[in-house]
Amino acid sequence: MGKDGKKPKQSAYITVPSEIINSLSSTSLNSLLLSPKKSSSSKKTIKHSYYSSIKNPKFLIFSLFLFSFLGLLTLYYNNLTLPPLTPSFAAPPPPCEHRRVSSAVAVANLATVGIEEKTETTSFWEQPEDLGYRPCMEFSEGYGNEGEEIKKDRSKYLMVVVSGGMNQQRNQIVDAVVIARILGAALVAPVLQVNLIWGDESEFSDIFDLEHFKRVLADDVRIVSSLPSTHLRTRPLEESQTPLHASPRWIRQHYLSRLRRNGVLLLRGLDSRLSKDLPSDLQKLRCKVAFHALKFAPHIQQLGNMIAERMSSKGPYVALHLRLEKDVWIRTGCSPGLSPDYDELVNNERKQRPKLLTAKSNMTAHDRKLAGLCPLNAQEVARLLKALGAPKSARIYWAGGQPFGGGDALLPLTREFPFFYNKEDLALPGELQPLADRASFMAAIDYIVCEKSDVFMASHGGNMGHAIQGHRAYAGHKKHITPNKRHMLPYFLNSSLPETEFNNIVRELHRDSLGQPELRTSKPGRDVTKYPVPECMCNTTKQSFS
User: Fold this and answer.
1) Shortest CA distance to 223 belongs to which of 190, 188, 263?
2) What is the number of alpha carbons within 13 Å of residue 152 lying toward its C-beta?
3) CA gyration radius for the chain?
4) Which helix (H) or strand (E) holds 259?
5) Looking at residue 435, what DSSP letter applies?
6) Mean pLDDT, to the nearest integer, of 17-38?
7) Strand partners, 317
8) What is the pTM assigned to this prediction?
9) How far apart are CA 243 and CA 273, in angstroms?
10) 65: which residues sit within 8 A by CB, 6+ positions away?
11) Long-range contacts: 465-469, Cβ < 8 Å, 24+?
């Protein structure tokens, strides 16, 4: 009790979520939370009933409830599209660490850039001429008749163990199917060798849709999940010495009679073992496996599609496969170019582990770079994209491992193109958790998002770059930039060259390197899954190569 005998004023409070408060304007808040000023005596009588209702706690609670409800509706409809936010890597990240933004922030950036880009006119997103080439997978009559006999056979089984990363395994699986067809054997679902580097113990059916694989290839090769009971006690005849680029004739001569006697043949180390130049039907089979049969498992495909949709929700996007990992710099004999200290770290480790070097040891890092044998670093990628007309507002998805140097290694790219994301940025909380320790799963997500992009570029080729190049060609020759490193790098090193002249030179160098149809047969040893014309794609118009 106060001294004057009056009861102290009691205040009533209501808890309102911060999201609702933030959704209300300052005017709305003032009208709710601030007491109205006392009016002059001439207006007291007129507004007495009005202010009485305002001061009524029931009225205040009702008003807050009403505005809370409206705020929730606003938030709900805003969330139907991607919410806006700040760019990834807005501030320099600490050295050797890839700084992540929250997925909510990353996804929201995509909404803001869509508005900005409308004001920019660029030919960067234009697709190359496909010259009328479309998939054509008609096999010969003889191939079909032979397939009927193969499907009836229950005596010969081929087992294969495929190694390496996910994209390297894909290539070997393609060749395993073709070898099974050559031998007239059933193919047991390929065994994925445990990767000692990543510790990934995934099985074929974890990454790929096994039942889809069986269905699509039912007329070509019989696929079984495991050996039948009649062959379980048979010790497989193991072979790991298949020579490089073996022909179908060599395969039959060396394996067929032994397979007939033993019943089960086990092959290892299939990477690049089968010739790239095969009869037309077998080339078509390669395409059928790569572009139709090898479909990712439903849970991987669904997540990859969702992340791709988040990238494309506000317009076109670029996908980059960046090869900036430490082991890449060591194996290629190249320098990352971040600083002398980083270059020295790579050189020292290369000296300690010389077997890792896959490049010519008699060339300096500078000579390798000028010869086009090194990965492009982030600064070179940024300059190339800019010269080819990529707008600053371009949304970029980047795939690849942890860059050597962390976020610092990516700064030249993120400064030039701030809307820069990877799968970790775009995934919602918990979405990637089940896949966190599965490198093959993560590579599959990257593959899906890159394949669906409007423009794709790899900084250094490799299995993934080659596979996606072929997949995009087969899908209609979607734009694929192949950096002309050997010819363009001297201009990159010329600091006195005006920017306009530099851009013109770079564009001219890449005029025919944007994903246009290219005949596999124009150069020997080309893989049909990278260059599907002419075996797997036919010209449906009068257009042709000039």
Assistant:
1) 188
2) 5
3) 31
4) helix 257-262
5) G
6) 39
7) 395
8) 0.79
9) 6
10) none
11) 465/321, 466/527, 466/529, 466/530, 467/167, 467/170, 467/171, 467/290, 467/529, 467/530, 468/321, 469/515, 469/530
